[in-house]
Amino acid sequence: MKNKKVIITGGLGFIGSHIIERLNDNNDIVIVDDESSGKIENIKHLDFSKIDTTLGSINSINLEEVFEDCDYVFHMAALTGVFQSVAKPLNSNNVNITGTLKVLEAAKNCEIKKLVFASSSAVYGDTKSLPINENDQINPLSPYAVTKATGELYCNVFSKIYALPTISLRYFNVFGPRQDPNSQYAAVIPIFIDKILKNKRPVIYGDGEQTRDFISVKKIVDANILAAESKETGAFNIGLGKSTTINQLFEIINNTIGSDIMPIYEKKRPGDIKHSIADISKAKSFGFDPDYDFKDDLMDTVEWFKNNF
Ligand SMILES: NC(=O)c1ccc[n+]([C@@H]2O[C@H](COP(=O)([O-])OP(=O)(O)OC[C@H]3O[C@@H](n4cnc5c(N)ncnc54)[C@H](O)[C@@H]3O)[C@@H](O)[C@H]2O)c1
């Protein structure tokens, strides 16, 4: 992508900041972020001369003013905590559904070329058939998952009735530098790295034989750019298409750090699904093909944490 004007809602967050990092050299960037979980620090290493930042909520700022003359929207802004959504479903609904609707409305009125929506594998719930395919029935099990499923439906409707090109990417378990290990909603990889680097024993819930599909944030950025430039619409799985058990993950991180610390096993958490792996054949239609060994990116992530925490 070159010489475009690109909006990233939630651009100060983990994934948004990586999209900006990739596009910053050749494009003009417009960020909309209310700093609720994102931080300016996440983009402090970038060239600010081509970045315009509007600090405020997608729910309250005049998005049409901000979106004017822009080409693409990468809509990352959301309240991302599953447990947070269980505690305060109205808040999740407000940002992730009403906010998304406002972003779509502004994108339509500003004749945006394509809107890429950050959806989630959470929409599937605890599916029986593996690998998970986009034709499988969705079964959201939390208010967060409901908001992502609803966002996808709104995207489809805006494409169909208003001719706004949209695409929804169902990310699986994303990891990489700048993912916050201290957040209440932190993901397993930053928590393991952070604890092991501090010589503390991480907790594994259940027997550790549950599987997840871990995908590097670099590949998530690839998927976003390919999806924006493609003609495809609808929902697409974005994962590695391979599964790793939590025990294997722990061992890889332990070995990478050169530690022999043991985990603490605790009772399985209610609501935790047993297995997850994406069928990524549909996303191959727009060129997404993350055929690589995720251990290299895991090592880069460990290095980043060593230098930054
Ligand atoms: N990280 C993952 O593994 C993962 C998996 C599936 C889906 N997703 C989705 O990807 C997107 C990005 O996730 P992330 O991991 O980078 O999360 P993040 O919390 O780091 O980023 C979200 C960003 O949105 C901003 N934001 C929140 N509410 C806002 C509002 N009302 N107005 C403007 N900005 C607001 C936050 O300040 C933050 O910068 C989210 O939509 C999330 O649901 C992430």
Average pLDDT score: 94
Number of E-state strands: 13
CATH superfamily of the largest domain: NAD(P)-binding Rossmann-like Domain
Structural class: alpha/beta
Overall number of domains: 2
Q: Write out the strand line-up for the largest beta sheet, numbering strands in chain order.
A: 3-2-1-4-5-6-11
Please identify, by name, the CATH architecture of the largest domain: 3-Layer(aba) Sandwich
Could you explain how this protein is built, in words?
This protein is α/β, with parallel strands linked by helices. The chain folds into 2 domains: 5-174 and 216-240, Rossmann fold (3-Layer(aba) Sandwich); 175-211 and 243-275 and 297-308, UDP-galactose 4-epimerase, domain 1 (Alpha-Beta Complex). Helices cover 36% and strands 17% of the residues. The protein has 9 helices and 13 strands. It has helices at 14-23, 63-67, 82-87, 89-109, 143-162, 188-197, 217-229, 246-257, 294-308; strands spanning 5-9, 28-33, 51-55, 72-75, 114-120, 166-171, 173-175, 203-205, 211-212, 214-216, 234-238, 244-245, 264-266. Strands 3-2-1-4-5-6-11 form a 7-stranded parallel beta sheet, sandwiched between helices. Helix 5 (143-162) links the parallel strand 5 (114-120) and strand 6. Helix 1 packs across helix 7, helix 6 runs parallel beside helix 8 and helix 8 (246-257) packs across helix 9. The longest helix has 21 residues, at 89-109. The protein is globular. The mean pLDDT is 94. The protein binds nicotinamide-adenine-dinucleotide (NAD). The site of nicotinamide-adenine-dinucleotide has 30 residues, from helix 1, strand 2, helix 4, strand 5 and strand 7.
